[in-house]
Design brief:
The mean pLDDT is 94. This protein folds into three domains: 66 residues, Alpha-Beta Plaits, CATH 3.30.70; 68 residues, GMP Synthetase, Chain A, domain 3; 171 residues, Rossmann fold (3-Layer(aba) Sandwich). Helix 5 packs across helix 6. Helix content is 24%, strand content 34%. The radius of gyration is 25 Å and the shape is globular. The protein is an alpha/beta fold. Helix 8 links the parallel strand 14 and strand 15. Bound molecules: S-adenosylmethionine. S-adenosylmethionine binds next to helix 6 and strand 12.
């Protein structure tokens, strides 16, 4: 189809492409193509002359008309099936519900709708056990539960059946990571494959991140992820976080406690490991009729027991967990010993 486009010398093409994108002028429905020395960038409407002048590039840039091939868009799930089945994407694996009707048809549709998808599995169990993992039933594609998931500019290699991972905490991880300042020390008590630790390490601000997990598979993937993301200041430790409180007594400016079903058992250890003035991010699951009160009481009792002063900084709902149940976070500061 004939379209207006910007003809730009190859060496300047990326700069121009970005400017067109930023100004919502690049036409994403057509394929960019090249000749020997030029790139042709399709545009949605004629580019204002002023913008072209501002580019201050070579005088070889021109607006011309050319034939373009359309970009073929994959069909939508709704278009294929007539409905939108519930599903979750982790890397190139799609997870559907085991109770769903017509699993094979849904899997075929998912593989068509997401061209990069390799595998479709159905969850066979809830998140369970000490290591918080799930069981899956293979449905279609490549028979594997290992994948690489991209989140917040990081890559995480993981095995869905051997390690815990949920993409639903991506925004929460970003929120916590943004609180870390230059020179801070962080303890990620239940680190899993490292989505908090690696994101924090990527900013380059933290002096040290101690990432602990009791699951040997989680630590093995965490070590792979440290290499994959080219970060260096993380110590990956396979251990029960409960027993590291004397080694890291008063060590951390931030402690992340992402083990929602039993974090309260680890409160004393976390409070011992935080520096005076440091912050603990305490995650738990609570009913809607007592979202924060009971947990704040447990936090206060634990601080009291250890002779520390506790200041609740923030209480928030992270996500809905089950009917009338919420995954919540309480952020609290632990101050100097009480006298
Ligand atoms: N923070 C990670 C994330 O956001 O993906 C993982 C969170 S997952 C809910 C909790 C993790 O705690 C699991 O990887 C589990 O193996 C680990 N875990 C359970 N008990 C532990 C313990 N006593 N000490 C250290 N890690 C533990």
């Amino acid at each position: 189809m004939e379209r207006y486009c910007i003809k730009v010398p190859t060496k300047e093409a990326e700069k121009v492409r970005r400017i067109l994108l930023d100004n919502e002028l690049l036409d994403g429905d057509f394929k960019i193509f090249s000749s020997t020395n030029f790139i042709f960038l399709p545009i949605v409407r004629l580019v204002p002359l002023q913008l072209l002048k501002e580019l201050q590039l070579s005088n070889q840039i021109e607006v011309v008309k050319k034939e373009f091939d359309p970009i073929e868009k994959p069909p939508t799930l709704e278009g294929i099936l007539g409905f939108n089945p519930q599903h979750e994407l982790i890397g190139n694996v799609a997870i559907i519900d085991s109770e769903i009707d017509q699993k094979k048809e849904v899997a075929n549709a998912l593989l068509k709708a997401y061209p990069k998808l390799k595998t479709v599995v159905a969850s066979k169990s809830p998140v369970q056990g000490e290591f918080r993992v799930k069981k899956y039933e293979f449905v279609k594609g490549e028979c594997t539960t290992e994948t690489v998931h991209k989140e917040n500019g990081c890559k995480f290699t993981l095995d869905l059946e051997k390690t815990y991972f949920t993409p639903r905490l991506a925004t929460e991880r970003q929120r916590v990571a943004s609180n870390v300042c230059k020179g801070d020390k962080v303890i990620d008590m239940f680190a899993g494959v490292g989505p908090y630790s690696i994101l924090i390490a990527k900013s380059g601000l933290a002096e040290k991140i101690v990432a602990i997990d009791k699951n040997p598979n989680a630590i093995s993937y965490l070590k792979k992820n440290i290499k994959l993301n080219k970060v260096e200041n993380i110590d990956a430790i396979e251990a029960d976080a409960r027993y590291l409180s004397s080694k890291y007594n008063g060590f951390a400016d931030h402690i992340i406690m992402n083990l929602p079903h039993s974090a309260y058992e680890f409160l004393d250890s976390a409070i011992s490991m935080v520096k005076a003035g440091g912050i603990i991010y305490y995650y738990t699951i609570n009913p809607e009729n007592n979202l924060f009160g009971a947990s704040i009481k447990q936090i206060n009792e634990s601080c009291e027991r250890l002779g520390k002063e506790c200041i609740i900084k923030e209480e928030r709902i992270v996500r809905s967990y089950a009917p009338h149940q919420y995954n919540i976070c309480i952020e609290f500061r632990v101050n100097n010993d009480k006298v």
